[in-house]
Structure formats: C-alpha cells, structure tokens
C-alpha cells in the first residue's frame, strides 16, 4: 500500500545545492575581486561543503525511497 508522505528532504537538497552553487559563483568571485583571498578560500570551502552535503542527502534520499 502506497501512502502519501509530506517531506521536506527535497527542499533541503535543493537549498543545499543551490546555496553552494551561489556561494561559489558570487561570493568567491566578489572576495577575489576585493583581494580578500582568505575569505574567498573559506567561501569556496563552504560552497563545496553545501554541494557535497546536498549530493549525499540526494543519494541517501534515493536509497531510502528505493530500498526502504
């Protein structure tokens, strides 16, 4: 029996991936233009962290929906 579930995982995944991409695209470039290299490095790290976390959440959600 298939039940309807309301969940927020898909929204969280979308937000993680989108904010990671936006941080890398805008914040890193802005910091580099202002010659703030340490801030650019931290922004790049946080951007990639969000993207990787979003990818892990996507894979985990897919595995949960498929096999559990």
TrEMBL record:
Source organism superkingdom: Bacteria
Question: Entry's InterPro entries?
Answer: CLC_0170-like (IPR049971)
Q: Which UniProt keywords apply?
A: Membrane, Transmembrane, Transmembrane helix
> Which residues span the membrane?
6-24, 45-64
Q: Which NCBIfam families match?
A: CLC_0170_fam
The protein depicted here goes by the name Uncharacterized protein
């Amino acid at each position: 029996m298939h039940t309807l579930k309301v969940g927020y995982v898909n929204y969280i995944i979308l937000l993680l991936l989108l904010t990671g991409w936006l941080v890398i695209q805008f914040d890193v470039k802005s910091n580099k233009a202002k010659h703030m290299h340490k801030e650019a490095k931290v922004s790049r790290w946080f951007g990639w962290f969000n993207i990787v976390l979003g990818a892990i959440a996507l894979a985990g959600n897919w595995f949960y929906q498929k096999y559990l």
